[in-house]
Amino acid sequence: MAHRLLAERVRAGDTVIDATAGNGHDTLFLAELVGDTGRVHAYDVQSSAIRATEVRLESVGYKDRVELHHASHTDIAEREEPIQAAIFNLGYLPGSDKQIITQADSTLEAVQSALSRLMSGGIVLLVVYVGHAGGEKEAEALERYARTLSTHEYLVLKYEYINPDNRPPYILAIEKK
Amino acid sequence: MAHRLLAERVRAGDTVIDATAGNGHDTLFLAELVGDTGRVHAYDVQSSAIRATEVRLESVGYKDRVELHHASHTDIAEREEPIQAAIFNLGYLPGSDKQIITQADSTLEAVQSALSRLMSGGIVLLVVYVGHAGGEKEAEALERYARTLSTHEYLVLKYEYINPDNRPPYILAIEKK
């Protein structure tokens, strides 16, 4: 679903952000969308994530399309060029230490930075997990913030599976008008 | 959004249902999707809705693609052929008597009938309004029911704008696996 929303809005030549590179799945998908002339900036605080993403990109020859930042996604504020999209895949890195999770405060700061750089017609996607310790707190903070965004400037759409056995992530999609 | 979801799944030649013809907007959209070889069954209890829908269809030459049923959507149970999609646009008929609203019990019965005829890969869309008297009750009943649907057989996705000034409708999309 998140990829479908990105594919609808990201075109060749666009600049986009993967705020949580993780194992590189979203980075790779974005690199496909922006093509040879576009640019993906991918962030992760964990060196294992940056390495995994690099390997994945090299395997398909997309390394040149991506700038890897071994840094917190709060560093999104340090650049200024407008972006067409950003994705935040929250929670912990699959297959790694579940103690290292994204945190409400820094996530919120990074989301605000991404929105400040978002172009009209662009989208910021938050893939929100509530199944791990700390997940509920982060989810609440993000949803509270998203509800305050002006309807004149943004549409915020929540996509949620409501009949699952366990608790899957849901998506908050913030679209700039 | 509802139309986008329908367009993704409905193809020429399909049989589909507009459970609440209303002013005919959804009926017309479905008639476009199913084409000359498909069939739309449109239901409404209000004769003004059936007339408005008929006029709209005739104006674009789609009358032959649609069977209008001046009847409650609970009559969906009286037919048996499989359907690819059904849409329920709940609440009251725009521009008419706001006392005549869809009711939780009959809506739930009609939704169950539609699901029993739904083909694999098909979708039932509920456009749920909560801004009018009785809306909350119907919404709660539908969402409670949707949450009970087996994840082996259905995916239920809720699409909801969360930053509006007023309370727009939200969508429950029930997709048959």
Brief synopsis:
2 copies of one chain form a homodimer. Chain A has 177 residues and is of the alpha/beta class.
Spans of at least 5 consecutive residues with low confidence of chain A: none
| CATH superfamily label of chain A | Vaccinia Virus protein VP39
Number of domains of chain A: 1
CATH topology of chain A: Rossmann fold
Radius of gyration of chain A: 15 Å
Widest sheet, order of strands of chain A: 3-2-1-4-5-7-6
* Contiguous helical run count of chain A: 5
Category by helix and strand content of chain A = alpha/beta
State the shape of chain A: globular
Measured distance between first and last alpha carbons of chain A: 21 Å
- What is the number of beta strands of chain A? 7
InterPro entries (chains A, B): MnmM_MeTrfase (IPR010719), SAM-dependent_MTases_sf (IPR029063)
Protein name (chains A, B): rRNA methylase
Structural notes for this entry:
- Chains A, B: It comes from Aneurinibacillus migulanus (Bacillus migulanus).
- Chains A, B: Pfam families: rRNA_methylase.
- Chains A, B: This is rRNA methylase.
- Two copies of one chain form a homodimer.
- The model of chain A has no long low-confidence stretch (mean pLDDT 92).
- The first copy, chain A, starts with a helix and ends with a strand.
- In chain A, helix 3 links the parallel strand 2 and strand 3.
- Helix content of chain A is 33%, strand content 26%.
- The longest helix of chain A has 14 residues.
- The first copy, chain A, has a single domain, classed as Vaccinia Virus protein VP39 (Rossmann fold, 3-Layer(aba) Sandwich).
- Chain A has 177 residues and is of the alpha/beta class.
- Strand 6 of chain A pairs antiparallel with strand 6 of chain B, so a sheet runs across the interface.
